[in-house]
Please model this.
Amino acid sequence: HTHTHTYTPMFKKKIGGRAILLAGKPGTGKTAIAMGLAQELGEDTPFTTISGSEVFSLEMSKTEALTQAFRRSIGVRILEETEVIEGEVVEIQIDTAVTAAEKSGGASGSSSKGGFEKTGRLTLCTTEMETVYDLGTKMIEALTKEKVTAGDVITIDKASGKISKLGRSFSRSRDYDAMGAQTRFVQCPEGELQKRKEIVHTVSLHEIDVINSRQQGFLALFAGDTGEIKSEVRDQIDAKVAEWREEGRATIVPGVLFIDEVHMLDIECFSFLNRALESDMAPVLVIATNRGISKIRGTEYKSPHGIPLDLLDRLMIVSTVSYTFDETKKILSVRCEEEDVEMSEDALELLTRIGMETSLRYAIHMIMAASLVAEKRKSGEVEIEDIKRVYTLFVDVKRSTQFLMELSKEFMFNELDAENDDDDDDDDSDSDESDEEENENSTASPSKEAMEEG
Model:
């Protein structure tokens, strides 16, 4: 959490082309920092998460997959000006065609459509003026659909004719009968009835690409089947967006692209990233890895974090360290709340100690198991005994490895004994017993085969 607060201001500057590497051993919160960033940056900032191995599993080239991820992470905020009429409804008069016909002497009534053509008048006012509008059938239907009554404050979009209700006017707040608990009250609008309003849409470049790349582009967005998008389409879109930016109709919102397990990318992907970061519309790139000095995929060379040095040079490296005792305890208590598990203070303390010695993920897995053990003995709260029971039932990596080491020694001596001694029956029965014990600890199947071979 503290990390997130430190790094977020850097992203809020809205400067693309920066790149950050989160490097640390497993279970130190690299992915958690990225998720925290997504929350802090808000809904308008595009945030895309991919895993390094995803790039290879798609039905398109690696660079196309990366380009799509990049373009998902760049938002375009498009401004549209529309004319709206905004005011408080004073009264609505609706005449069906029959009454209208009667007023005009009954002659036109017979020629109208079955006598059901509706006409009407809508009186709207602001604090300064009042106007009467004539209504056609469509507008009347829209008003009845929105259940607009006198005293509502509404806006009408002139281009599309869409009506939206903003709330009730404060002047009507005394009409107790006409309101529910959830009624919103708003001030009567000021100034003129007709206003110019700016509407802002935020879309990502990838969405614009998909819609323009094929006939049913809009459906492809939902189907997820986008395929390769031609570079000519992208160039045209970039040119158009640049034009909008100059006219002031659009602004670019560089988002964040988070690539987890980045050591899974190969040398071609890394050289693509180098090039992509230099583009003027690049998002902020956050990559995470838990490797030390390892081979760059696709080459024979070793390098820190499995990332080529020319890319490492562009990165700001943030190293994540293991959680402290208090942090681990806090994470576990939050996790208990999330999973609706009541845990006593002593049990939480013990679980935190286990988490510090083994791994945080192991401790998190134990929460649910311990609550089931507590449930079995009809207790609503997890106590120390439940944690101890779960600790003996489920082994962590260290203990599991230790068991395997011990077993392999045992069986190796068994083989030696079987060659030297005539009395192998005893040995065999011994190994059988140890086999059963190990079966309980769920690590024995390979050793059983070893024994049979022996």
Summary: The chain is about 45% helix and 25% strand. The two ends are 54 Å apart (CA to CA).
